[in-house]
Design a protein that fits this description.
The chain is of the alpha/beta class. It contains 17 helices and 14 strands. The chain has a five-stranded parallel β-sheet, with helices on one face. Helix 9 packs across helix 11 and helix 15 packs across helix 16. It is globular, with a radius of gyration of 28 Å.
């Protein structure tokens, strides 16, 4: 089956050469049993390619299962994939077959494979190496003949560097790589996709289809589309139902294109005198304490100048301390002794501190600003915690902990 026939069969819209190449690789590798790793951003349509591979393989009459690894809790993922024996854990009232057993002689699609716990990754590696697995709570080695297709929007080489993904598993999965281009990489396909989504929505809801003015279409083509095809479809349907006018101008379209949120949380740059084992929170407190002393010194110098006294300069250089977005905040190095551990231990970031020459207290509240940034990110991404965590530059697990810690409820 050629690429155009595949597009018609699976409803793929687009003429971009990179997209055609990805489809061509999927068709070419389908006849084999090689493991395939599909990469690409969220919303690019990675879930279609395992179906293409399965339907064009010798396994097309076998079972096909798609498992979202990121949606299954860590405590039950092994049971879902490999099954469990009776009494293996509380609530295991009988034995249960896992997906590897049920999909024998078929195809198993592991979506968001980068979210698998390390313990489950070790089990998966054994299946890929020799087709063997053991049910949770069991001791009998079982065999399976299943074809694995995995997908992820995570940068796996980076995850390997951080110790979150096994390097040996990555090379097992990445036998045949297929990369799905982001929507902004194939701008010529955006008008085709928009017309398709607008037409389908209008037909389903018995309303006239919307159209875009040339300026609006140009704006749509130049937009970043972090959510890719999924986001384009959602925006098209929102406009179709919310706007009474069927011709959409650039001004109207702009209301439906959210402003991209960038993280403003501080990122610490390590200092040579930083003690080992100090947490990022402790590092930030130390930085704030040092900055407080520098500000007090500067205020004192200003007061001396205002009073006609000569300025005493002890400052030698400015050293980068934190980076907020594209802005680097610097701390002025002095010839005075460094802050002692005792001074640091007594520092409370949220306390009200009076500086020299100032009659008004100033408050440093890290928690307040952190909570505010989390709320803004959640609102910008409509409560989608995975997207909010990505925008904030923290893990989804850390975001969940922070939400509970601050009692955030959106």
């Amino acid at each position: 089956m050629d690429v155009q026939a595949i597009k018609r069969t699976f409803g793929i819209i687009g003429t971009d050469p990179k997209l055609d190449r990805a489809i061509g690789i999927a068709v070419q590798v389908a006849a084999t049993d090689l493991t395939v790793l599909i990469t690409g951003e969220s919303g690019t349509g990675k879930d279609v390619f395992p179906k293409i591979i399965h339907q064009n393989s010798a396994r097309k009459h076998g079972q096909y299962f798609a498992v979202n690894c990121g949606a299954i809790p860590e405590g039950t993922i092994d049971s879902e994939l490999f099954g469990h024996e009776k009494g293996a854990f509380t609530g295991a009232v009988g034995e249960r077959k896992g997906y590897f057993e049920i999909a024998d002689k078929g195809t198993l699609f592991l979506d968001e494979v980068g979210e698998l716990p390390l313990s489950t990754q070790a089990r998966l590696l054994r299946v890929l190496e020799n087709g063997e697995f053991i049910r949770v709570g069991g001791s009998k080695v079982m065999k399976t003949n299943v074809r694995i297709v995995a997908a992820t929007n995570v940068d796996l080489p980076l995850a390997i560097e951080k110790g979150r993904f096994r390097e040996d598993l990555y090379y097992r999965l990445n036998t045949i790589p297929i990369h799905i281009p982001a929507l902004r990489e194939r701008k010529a396909d955006i008008p085709l996709l928009f017309r398709k989504f607008a037409s389908d929505f209008a037909e389903r809801n018995h309303i006239p289809a919307i159209t875009l003015t040339p300026d609006a279409m140009k704006m749509m083509e130049n937009y970043r589309w972090d959510g890719n095809v999924r986001q384009l479809k959602n925006v098209t349907e929102q406009i179709s139902i919310m706007e009474t006018e069927r011709t959409i101008t650039a001004e109207t379209l702009a209301k439906y294109l959210p402003v991209r949120v960038q993280s403003n949380l501080p990122v610490l740059l390590p200092r040579e005198d930083t003690p080992e084992g100090m947490s990022e929170r402790d590092l930030l407190y130390r930085v704030l304490f040092d900055m407080k002393k520098d500000i007090a010194e500067l205020r004192a110098q200003v007061n001396n100048i205002s009073s006609g006294h000569p300025m005493e300069t002890n400052y030698t250089q400015a050293t980068p301390v934190t980076q907020i977005g594209d802005t680097v905040v610097t701390r002025v190095s002095q010839t005075e002794p460094e802050t002692t551990d005792q001074e640091f231990a007594e520092f409370v970031p949220a306390e009200e501190t009076h500086y020299a020459g100032s009659s008004s207290p100033e408050t440093l509240s890290l928690e307040h600003h952190e909570k505010e940034m989390i709320i803004k990110a959640l609102e910008a991404h409509r409560g989608k915690r995975k997207d909010a965590a990505k925008a904030l530059g923290i893990s989804e697990r850390t975001l969940y902990r922070k939400i509970n810690e601050y009692g955030i409820n959106l």
